[in-house]
Structure formats: structure tokens, C-alpha cells
Amino acid sequence: MTPLPADPSRPLLEVRGLRTVFHTLAGAYPAVDGVDLSIARGEVVGLVGESGSGKSVTGFSLMRLVDPPGEIVAGEVLFEGRDLLSLPESEMRAIRGDRIAMIFQDPLMTLNPVLTIGEQMIEAVTEHHGVGERAARARAVEALGQVGIASAAERLRQYPHEFSGGMRQRVAIATAMLNEPDLIIADEPTTALDVTIQGQILHEMQTLCEASGTALLWITHDLGVVAELADRICVMYSGRIVETGSADAVLDAPRHPYTAGLLGSVPSVNAPGTRLHQIDGAAPPLSARPTGCPFRTRCGNVLPVCAEIDPPLVGPVPGRGWRCHNPMPERDAA
């Protein structure tokens, strides 16, 4: 596919009404339910929420990697104005790994156990750029060095089972960065790494975004990471984005009670000795989502209308919004 000329006024990625369901014997249940999202060139967007909120399925849906019984049933994923959901699979394959890369939470989803690290990384370069093996190998060595792997040339000859879990994740991150893609979707990529290496990876990601204009969708439950990394934050609950805004606005003055609850449970933002806040209950399963607002059964700000009407996304300015009938007061939200 020939890319369209870049338009600075248009988001690199614009998601409209994305809906992904999982089919069961009892019916089809939405894991992603009407997600709207945009990412500009060079922007870092944090997608935050508890396990089961739909974050990872959103990432897989953007890449068209949802397998049965999952199915993308509605929406648009516009990449430079073209809808990825309507492209032939051959064109989508040309985009994956080149213009859009994904870092999976489990590196074994990226690495083939019967091929050496070098074979896999070199193929990732030659497949999309048609360069010689020597140039591709040099790029692979450089990428491994960027993620803190010593003796990179020698490590290319090894197999995934010869690496620790954390080292395999670093290889997966390096592979995603190989072709300097326009967009990287990172699904909890630093969970298995120690704090020192995590900081190094975050620094490399920020450098890549600033130097090349690469956009980054960082999927995580770690608010500390997005506070350091993200320009903008989208908070997800029960398959929907319930609050969005600049990182400073969301972290300093959350308006949705769920966002405030997440922040209240983080030790680093609470005074020493202060009892951490705990959100009551658990996220509802897909098959038992309550009527009205999905968060109402766990919310301390619940009103009678919450049981009847699912709140729309509202906000004072474009790019800042929340889904709540009774939002946190601004003066108490920080």
C-alpha cells in the first residue's frame, strides 16, 4: 500500500466507534464497546485500566489480530485516513511490523522458538525494506544495544530459550523498534523488567518518539509509568473509555470516580502511613454488565439515574472528557 502524504492537521491514527465482541453459546458480549481514540504523530497516549477492562483487546483490534471467537463488528480504524479494517489482509501484513508495530505482554507471542534471534530480527528488516543481510544484521545489533543487551552480535546467534524472560521481552521491544515505525502499540511491555531496565526502555521510547515522530500507544495498569511517559491518558473501564485528557489534567484533577479510585490506590501519590484507597468489588464480567453506568455497582458517587442511563462522554473542552452523571468536584479531584 502506498502511504498518503502526511497531513499535520490530521491525527496519525483515529479510531471511531470500535466494537469487538466475543461469541459464546449464550450470545455475543462486547470486550471493546464503542471506543473513540486518536493519536497524533510523535504523541504518547497511555491507555489505563484494570485487568479485564478491554485495553489489550483494543490493541489487538487496532492490529486486526483478534482471533475467533472474537470478532470486530463495528467501527473504523483510520491510519493516515485509510480504514485498516477494510484493507485486504495482504496490505495489512505489509503495514504490521513496518509502519505499525506491536509489543506484546508475553514475548513468546513475538519470538519463534525454533529460529535464532538473529534470523527473526533480520527477516523483520529485509521483509519490509529489501536491504541486504549485512545491513539488516547491523540494524538488529543496534536495536539490541538500545534496549541494554550486551554482546549483541553474539546474542543474535542464540535461541529464545537461551534468554531469561526479561531478556526475551527486551528482544521483543527491540524487534518492534527495528523499522522505526510510525506507530508502536505497547501492551504492558515493561512488566517483566527490573526498574533500572524499565527506565532505560522508557528513555529509548521517548527518544524514538521525539527524534522520528513515532507515535506510541502505551497500554498499562501502571499509573506511575504513564505519569512519566504519556502526553495524554485514556482511562478504560468495561470496554469503554470513561475519562480522557492531558496527562496533567487526568492525574492532577480526575473527574471520573473510577480514575480517582485508581489514583487513590497508588502508594507514590499518597502520604506515608496513609491507608490506601480500595475500589469496592470487581469489574463485572462481559456477560453480566449492569444496566446504565457499568461502574455504578462500585461507585461512591452513584445516583438513581446511574442505573437507568449510560452516561455519554462530556467535557469542558475538546480532548478532555468523562462519562459520569456525578463527577468528582474539581476542587476535590486532585
UniProtKB/TrEMBL annotation:
GO terms for biological process: peptide transport; transmembrane transport. Keywords: ATP-binding, Cell membrane, Membrane, Nucleotide-binding, Transport. SMART domains: AAA (SM00382). This is ABC transporter ATP-binding protein. It holds the Pfam family ABC_tran. It is a peripheral membrane protein. One of its GO terms (cellular component) is plasma membrane. GO terms for molecular function: ATP binding; ATP hydrolysis activity. Its main location: membrane. It is found in: Cell inner membrane. It comes from the Bacteria. Coiled coil: none annotated. NCBIfam families: oligo_HPY.
